[in-house]
Structure formats: C-alpha cells, structure tokens
Amino acid sequence: MQNLALIKLGGSVITFKDKPLSANTDAIDGISGALASLGIPTIIVHGGGSFGHHWSVKYDMHTKPAPYGAHGVSVVHESMIALNQIISISMIRAGLNPYSVAPPMFTTGHKAISVKIRELYTIAKSKLVPVTFGDVVHMAGRNYSILSGDALMSILAKVLRPSKVIFVTNVDGIYRDLNTKELVTELVAKGKADPIKFSHAVGADVTGGMQRKVKEAFKIASFGIDVMLINGLVPERIGQAVSGKLQVGTVIRGAK
Rounded to whole angstroms, how far apart are CA atoms 121 and 204? Predict the structure, then answer.
C-alpha cells in the first residue's frame, strides 16, 4: 500500500441537502482545518449534495448512460464546479494547496485511466492536494452518465491502493439500529460478498445514501484495504482516522 489518504467528503456534510445550492461552510471550514494537519499525501473526492444531486434529480439524470438534455448536463456539471470552488477556497484559507481535477482527466466514461490516476498520487506527494468530485461525464455519442463520488473512490482505490480510505458523512458510521443509534464499530469484508446483504446479516441498519457508500466501501475492502466511515461534523475524527486512533466510527476491515 502507498502512503496516501483517500478521503470522500459526502454531500450530506458539506451541503444542506434540503436546501438547493447551499453549502455548509462551517462544516467545510472545520474539515479543511483538519485536513491541513494530516501530514500525509492526500486526495479528496467530494459529493454533490444540494448542488449536483439536486440538479441531477431535477433533470432526471442517472448513472445509466442516456442522451440526457444538453442543458441539464451543463447545469449539473457547472454546479459541481461551483461547489468544488467553495471547498477549494476553504482549503486555501486553511493553508492547503488544492488542485481541482474533473473526473474526465483520469477516467474515460466510468473506466480508469491508470496512468493519469497514478499521476494524481505524484501530485499529492508534491504538497498539492488533488480534489475531484462526482460529476456528469460523457460516455459515447450523445450519451452522458452520472459518475458518483462514491464510485470514484473505488476507481481511485483500486489503482492507488492507499493506506487510508475514509468516507466522511454526517453520521458517526454504520448503525446497528437507527432508532437507538447503536454503532457498528467493525465489519469484516469477505471477498466480493454483497455488502448490503452482508451488512444486514450482521444486523446493520443501512439506508438511503449510506447504502451506496457501504457498497463502495465493501468493494474497496475487497482489495484488502481497510475503510473507515466517520462523522465530518466532528472534524477531529479525520485526524484520528489517519493516525490510527479513531475512537468513534465504523471500520470495514479489508479482505485477507
């Protein structure tokens, strides 16, 4: 594994998902401050929240490739650039050197361009922080598709084999029961078993957007990489996760 932290900032923590085009600037600034003290090469992926996700729903755009309307493609893409700029400016204020990279710079459709992904690691080692994001991407002909930030995490992790993989959300991790907020502190990936069925088998309560994160987290864990899910509204947990001192969160152990 390479000395690298691959961190996903979920739309639920960096935006207010119930209010279109509303960034949670307090949470973003707290996360930026935490990232500034990591002391390890880092690549950031962020979701769309009330920016890209809001518009992709409005224009009925999905991960399935289709000839979506040009106006919708433009609006979704530009909204992600707007959110990326808010995050990047916050990181600069915190003393970081973000370097924004749209997904087509290292993917073709939903497929990795390995040499370009490895270049991101080279950039991360040069005191810059590559920042990429879920986006609407060109597939073939007139077809476009949503490539989510969660899916990007798997694409990047498979090529780079980072030492730390962290999903930052607005909850403490995976709950055994959503009502009692009992946390599942550890799960163990077993090859390529269905993550949702597996999480249900151990009594985890996985719903909505978290389900997609768990799916990608288990995919990454199948590569033999530990994956952590933590609460970004408590930003110091990012440093704890990177240093191996996480106190509150869920760890999915990589398959042996």
Answer: 34
